[in-house]
Amino acid sequence: MTITATALPKSGEEDGTVKYAAIGPLDLEAGGFLPDVVLAYETWGQLNADASNAVLIQHALTGSTHVARGATDEEGWWEQLVGPGATIDTNRFFVISINIVGGCYGSTGPSSEAPDGRPWGSRFPLVTLRDSTEAEARLAEALGIEAWHAVLGGSMGGARALEWAATFPERVKRCAVISVGAYSTAEQIAFAQAQTLAIRQDPNFNNGDYYGGTAPEHGLALARRIAHITYRSALELDFRFGREAQHQEKPLAAAVLGERGRYQVESYLDHQGTKLVRRFDANSYIAITEALMSHDVARGRGSLEAALSRTTAEFFVAAVDSDRLYFPAQSRELAAALPGDVPVHVIEAPIGHDGFLTEIGQLSAQLRGAFFA
Ligand SMILES: CC(=O)SCCNC(=O)CCNC(=O)[C@H](O)C(C)(C)COP(=O)(O)OP(=O)(O)OC[C@H]1O[C@@H](n2cnc3c(N)ncnc32)[C@H](O)[C@@H]1OP(=O)(O)O
Ligand SMILES: N[C@@H](CCO)C(=O)O
């Protein structure tokens, strides 16, 4: 099979811009296959002669490949962590971020054309995190990267990093698993189901075949609201919004139910929903959410300890102390099951799960000492 990756840039001119690689057909864990898979990716810095300086940064659920600015003006989602002189110093390291299969930031996903020329839509198969890892490994080969200096990510990005370390132990020297455990728990699956059902039950969903028509925007916005509540702590929401009404709106005054005014927190969640709808495909949201539901590094590999005993990477595990979605206890469970004595770094942030995105200063200092000194 021929794998075509666009040539690596010779200078920093293309840093932080999207490139594409055709990695061929992908056999899927749950059965079936995807023909002609394309991966979208961004890179920063230069791969050195022996390809020993490559770092893979995996995005979270609705993240894109745009980790940092590079040659573009658009700020990245881990901007402070990656760049010239930053903890992940792009003068030293070659950084790459890949859009997960099923996503909507350039990789093959439900909105991509199937072989018959129509969007995959309802026909898009279940692609597990393990399947995506397999696809990403082919891109690494095409780029000449035999082993990563480090693979890291937060939330689903952390799950993707962990899956890399367990699937290709010899190819991951260091692995940072941030704000996620070794598997999706019953509660995480439960929250995820509510989100996917919100989309599926939108009258415009049409079983996923809505391209060319009206997208299930209400469902996607509701899914985001549910998710966003889990990404933030009760303390933060209380502190920011309390019981305040949104501007002139009157939550306690309504002639009929439909006219009730909103509390501030409702308006905030409405805004979060609207914002996601502008940048995300509903089918991709389902595909990736279901991939995250599949997260279980031990699946088919025996006990958790047995599954992790195959890893040879040095591990960095971190959790946000106020995370009420991926509880720090799950990070402790993961660390305890890993070979050796792996500490759990604590990110102190009252915000909740999203602390892995907002408290980059703390994370950066912890990671610098551990992996990038
Ligand atoms: C191409 C791309 O966009 S790729 C994007 C990649 N994104 C990711 O990887 C996800 C990572 N990012 C995130 O999840 C988030 O951006 C975070 C966690 C970093 C920050 O969270 P945010 O939601 O941006 O911050 P916060 O909770 O403070 O919300 C701010 C927004 O709420 C709005 N807001 C605040 N209070 C209210 C209210 N009462 N009513 C309505 N809106 C409100 C603000 O005006 C602001 O709006 P804006 O984002 O349009 O400027
Ligand atoms: N806010 C993040 C959290 C997911 O872990 C996202 O949207 O991807």
UniProtKB/TrEMBL annotation:
Substrate binds at R224, D354. Gene3D superfamilies: alpha/beta hydrolase (3.40.50.1820). SUPFAM superfamilies: alpha/beta-Hydrolases (SSF53474). It catalyses: L-homoserine + acetyl-CoA = O-acetyl-L-homoserine + CoA. Keywords: Acyltransferase, Amino-acid biosynthesis, Cytoplasm, Methionine biosynthesis, Transferase. Residues 53-358 form the AB hydrolase-1 domain. It comes from the Bacteria. The active site is at S155 (nucleophile), D323, H353. Pathway: Amino-acid biosynthesis; L-methionine biosynthesis via de novo pathway; O-acetyl-L-homoserine from L-homoserine: step 1/1. It is found in: Cytoplasm. GO terms for molecular function: homoserine O-acetyltransferase activity; homoserine O-succinyltransferase activity. NCBIfam families: homoserO_Ac_trn, PRK00175.1. Homodimer. Belongs to the AB hydrolase superfamily. MetX family. HAMAP family: MetX_acyltransf. Transfers an acetyl group from acetyl-CoA to L-homoserine, forming acetyl-L-homoserine. This is Homoserine O-acetyltransferase. It comes from Arthrobacter bambusae.
